Amino acid sequence: MVKTIQIGLVGNPNSGKSSLFNVLTGLNQKVGNFPGVTVDKKTGECAISPALTASIIDLPGTYSLYPRREDEWVAYRVLMQQDKQVHPEMVVLIADASNLKRNLLFASQIIDLKIPVVIGLTMMDIARKKDIHIDVAALERELGVPVIPINPRRNKGVPALKKAIEQTAQHLYKTPARDFINNGALANDAVTDIKKLLPDLSDYRAIHYLINHESFSLDNTTQQKIESIEQAHNFNHTKTQAEEILQRYQRIGGILKQTVSEPSPLEKSLFTEKLDNLLLHRRWGYLILLAVLFLLFQCVFWLAEYPMNFIDWGFSTLSGWFSSILPTTWWSDLFVNGLLAGLGGILVFIPQIMILFGLITILEDTGYMARISFLTDKLMRKVGLNGKSVMPMISGFACAVPAVMSARNIENKKERLLTILITPLMSCSARLPVYTILIGLVIPKKMFFGFLGLQGLVMMGLYLLGLVMALVVSYVAKWFIKIQEKSFFILELPVYRSPRWKNVVVTMISKAKIFVVDAGRVIIVISLILWALSTYGPKDKMHAVEDHYEQLVKANPADEAELNRQKNTELLANSYAGILGKSIEPAIQPLGFDWKIGIALITSFAAREVFVGTMATLYSVEESDDDQSTLMQKMQSATRPDGTKVYTLASGLSLMVFYVFAMQCMSTLAIVKRETRSWKWPLIQLVYMTGLAYIMSLLVFQLFK
Questions:
Q1: Per-residue pLDDT reduced to its tens digit, 612-630
Q2: 3-class DSSP assignment, residue 704
Q3: CA angle 209, 139, 253 (to 5 degrees)
Q4: Which residues are CB-neighbours of 146 under 8 A, at least 6 positions away?
Q5: Most buried among 16, 284, 295, 450, by the most CB within 10 A?
């Protein structure tokens, strides 16, 4: 009979924990959230032996059992057996051999919790390069738990690790009876009273009940009794913690003297240190960073263009095929133009999401991501963010959906929320078709100095406008978001390594799955609503249009195709979406917009690039590349009732600025709701961005008209 156990995978950040998790579980992974917090809950199944399987939980990286960040609290509650869903029977702790002193602090704390522990010793190759030699057998003897050297990237040591896990599960390795330090001496009387109240606790676990019991799931009576014990013995949290850390490092120092030989501090610097002298240089570092981000930004466009076009073509072909074989009824229209179109709108984003997260994972694996955060932290802090905010913001230039998802790496709640709120201000690729057609309409083809085009400069200005406004909004919003959580930017610069390609692929697949399953459901629902609004309208008006064009077709059969396009335009104008567009026309007239632009603003809420398709329909032009020039000509010749042009320099710039700032992407709202676990923040985002878009567009139109 096969036995199944639950294993918690823990370790310091950048210790190789995630690499081992991917090796052990492969593609057999699930990604969710821990209850109550938006921290990734990665679980996977692993066959340890023919008689033993394990459900492995990859807990967030943490430096010690004194949590400060949200993700550290998640790992802490699991280890303190305060999580209702996760109860690991064993812990596999990953320790960096090249930085053993710091890693053994966390290891010693886990050992004193009296949980069965297996230590996986990673980075042995880096330790050897630093001329650090570890007597693994002696280290195992001193710690009293199995210590297995492993290299997850090359799949070395994993069979030995599985064997140690199996033997520990069979109780062949016993939990050390003696504490790593004298925990009882830290608060002897208080610890004794806690153990009388809760007899199953170890001395060290009892200390944590004294320090953090308010954050534990205990009944009111137990909470009051622990509080009484604290007061009776005048228990001092800070002093106890300081004494504990001091004792642990004293013991760790003694162990390292017996088990580790290290070179003189005067050794020559490693390749990593030499490379950092260039990449973290006060001037060259920023230039290299800009070059790397430029390449990242361009690669998302270059690499995603072909699969996105293929998906778009596939759904267009599929829609055409279904339209030709299905009867002309309301349900076939709903299926083709509602459900199928909505599904296409979801899947077309997948190449960008996979490529973006793949490239970000490569930057993380190589160690450069930490350098980006380090370089930008000073600027970000001035506006209420920190260095980890820069990657979601840069990612937002490709697509706000994966960018918002990547903000999970920011531990501080306030800084993470600010990053989520401003990321949609980055001009994503969906805005590009809007910018392109409007710049072509209202910006002349002028050249400066023979190589700088005015149209290109305007395009770059739109992107910079969104970036600058994002920093301004963050600076203002930080005074209104009353989340009192001290910001700690603790950053370890890992060594440079080649990316682990299997890890890159696993990450790309998992992120795409999260987007399709979670955000996709909301997108489909709203797509169906938009289809209904654009398809139906008051019966008398819609029938009048149908009857009118039926007579025109009978009278002019040769013009049937053109008349049908005009009929569709009038049907849209008289639909509920069209009525809504005309109803908001008085509000958008001060911006230089007419009712047709109003309809485009409404329909492009599904996706910003829908603006061009809506314009094509409204101006009776087919949505094909060959008709692009015709669309621009129609838009250029469009006039208002008084004979003035609709698209002037003022109205064109006003519309571009509106699209820079407006929140017109239901996928982003859906993902913000998912990440914040509330409709409050996406609604605030929708209101402030719409208000900002309106005010800035009004200023631009009044300035240039």
A1: 656 655 554 333 333 444 5
A2: helix
A3: 70
A4: 118, 119, 140, 164, 167, 168, 173
A5: 16
